């Protein structure tokens, strides 16, 4: 039991080592290499995003069939090889290869890490503490990430590769930690599990009204992630100093830290129905306020609060899914991967849709994002509300 309990502090280190703080300077580093152009950035990132999209659900299913610990180890190996490739293969093909490896790592860790942690708490009889403990872990990690992001401009002045070298060092630590994880005791041996297809798992969840809930929560994160490439360009166009962009990202991690540490209070004092109603208006207003104001410092403050809250409360959503929509507890990672797949759908579609409008007017683009999100959330919520299996 004590060995399994050690997974909690090890998980904190593991989550810390999978953060890619260098992403903000990766494109700048790429353009310092010979024979590189800006359009090549879209090529390697696009291929990477496509790889995540194709692998998300298969990776979750693989994890449930072959073990969460084994999948986390594979994810960490892929992440480590990605860091090595970014550092040592300094051309377009190297960046494409590294992006694919990073995408494999992300796909294999996204649902699996949450499922593994929930499984650990279940074996300890503490599954009701999921939101509280996961919130603290992610909150503390976000605080450290804030420091690293703020330090990025100073580290790159020493050597532009220094952030990647630090990440590579952390990857080695993360790999050691992943091997040291203790498999929580399972009620069934993996070999004894009834093999189900992804479609069977999805149909079981669909009976519990899974789809409208997933569309609701995935639309929110999908919209905010999809608009992230535009928000900093918009700020810069309004006169926001480029050197302060790191502070926007860093301070959003501070909000993440605060919300994450106290996110369990959302479960304690509010029903999920009340929480969804709040988020329907909160995130719609988020886009409207960004469109309404022209002061870049006010907009930066809105971004800090909105993005920080989004990630700070994420474990509340995960906890609700794990406790209410999983009829077969042996397929947790698969179901969480379906959620990530829906998020990726929004992330892929929205930039193409909104990019043309942003090229004409950022304000109009943000108004349209707000209106579109409102109608998606409202229609999804009505389906949840009218279901025989109502949220409570």
Structure description:
There is one protein chain. By secondary structure, this protein is mostly helical. The protein folds into two domains: 1-183, MFS general substrate transporter like domains (Growth Hormone, Chain: A), CATH 1.20.1250; 196-392, Growth Hormone, Chain: A, CATH 1.20.1250.20. Helices cover 82% and strands 0% of the residues. The protein is built from 16 helices and no strands.
- Separation of the first and last Cα atoms: 33 Å
- Number of extended strands: 0
β-sheet strand percentage? under 5%
Low-confidence residue ranges? none
Q: Superfamily at the CATH H level of the largest domain? A: MFS general substrate transporter like domains
Instruction: Give me the number of helical elements.
Output: 16
Supply the helix-strand structural class: mainly alpha
The CATH class of the largest domain is: Mainly Alpha
The CATH topology label of the largest domain is: Growth Hormone, Chain: A
Count of structural domains: 2
Helix content: over 70%
**Morphology call:** globular
Largest sheet: none
Question: How would you spell out the order of helices and strands?
Answer: HHHHHHHHHHHHHHHH
Shape-level CATH architecture of the largest domain = Up-down Bundle
Radius of gyration: 21 Å
The average pLDDT score comes to: 83
What is the topology?
Layout: H1 2-18, H2 23-31, H3 38-66, H4 68-88, H5 92-123, H6 130-158, H7 162-180, H8 198-207, H9 210-237, H10 245-262, H11 264-269, H12 272-292, H13 296-312, H14 314-324, H15 332-360, H16 362-385
Helix pairs in contact: 1-5, 1-6, 1-7, 3-4, 3-5, 3-15, 4-5, 4-7, 5-15, 6-10, 6-14, 9-13, 9-15, 9-16, 10-13, 12-13, 12-16, 15-16
